[in-house]
Design a protein that fits this description.
By secondary structure, the protein is α/β, with parallel strands linked by helices. Helices cover about 40% and strands about 15% of the residues. It has one domain: Aldolase class I (TIM Barrel), CATH 3.20.20.70. The strands form three sheets. The protein has an eight-stranded parallel β-barrel with strand order 3-4-7-8-9-10-12-13, surrounded by five helices. A three-stranded antiparallel β-sheet has the order 5-6-11. The longest helix is centred in the middle third of the chain and has 19 residues, at about 185-200. The protein is globular.
Amino acid sequence: MNLYDIAGTALRRLPAESAHQLTILALRAGLGPVQHAPDDPVLRTRIGPLDLANPIGLAAGFDKNARTGAAMMRAGFGWVECGTVTPLPQAGNPRPRLFRLTRDGAVINRMGFNNDGLDIFARNLAAQRKRGWAIGANIGANKTSKDRIGDYVTGLKTLWGLPAWFTINISSPNTPGLRELQSKDALQELLGRIMEGRAALTGDQPSPPFFLKVSPDLDDTQIIQISETACHYALDGLIISNTTISRPDDLQSAARGEGGGLSGKPLFTRSTEVLRAFRHATRGRMTLIGVGGIASGADAYAKIRAGANAVQLYTALALHGPSLVGTIKSDLAERLRANGFSSVDEAVGRD
């Protein structure tokens, strides 16, 4: 156990949200871990136009205000997603709203898109840009907005030219009614307006990729409809998945009955099933990102073989500490080589 993991163990004795805030402060002060050795070449991969040194990404939710993207890149992540950010600042839901389910390797959150708004996010992100770093923006809608689709277009316009990619988050269970944007008609309107905004901003220049983050609580019909709509509007990829509102019967921790989205180990099987279903529905025409329950190289490898071009994690990092990233990368590289693959891309969708 290194110094950073010892510090993480101490932080986990604090309430979950307080520990998270202290972690952000420490990272901003330059106290985070730094990876000095280059990544194993077998881990290099691409998602759309993005060339990544490794496929292990930090999921949105860790850094809602784009304050630590550079620190997390230095810590060894191949790509870092900041947000979710909304046009106007909002406090989110009342505390307590973040709960560790340590015995289950899980977290429940009902944060409610708490963030400082687009202007501060843009300023922070602009200060962390560096050639070769992949730091993206996850955009959302304000809880009280009268035009939620308009909020996404506002996010796009305000941040244009800053993030390496945009993720459109319509799948958080903690903003009432947000998941309704996953329905066929609403999604068509959303993507239509997003792509109009993208075309107006791009002109003759290359556009950053656009990803859509979806729920694990979708049925087969919804998966097919979302896949068809995403392909029709030439979306660059899907992030599968957000947290779940379902609760497995075998949860052990005292906080298992709290409301909000469940993430971590109990989400792994369902999110991987949904990933595999999207791979089938899109017939390999779209980049897919696997998220949900990744805590080891074996988990990351399973997502890749199920169809993910890259993966993201967050909950396991909070529960196990920053050395987990290096462990996952080392294990994944060994698994790829043991199965005769010379790159991540060769393993994508093999199951």
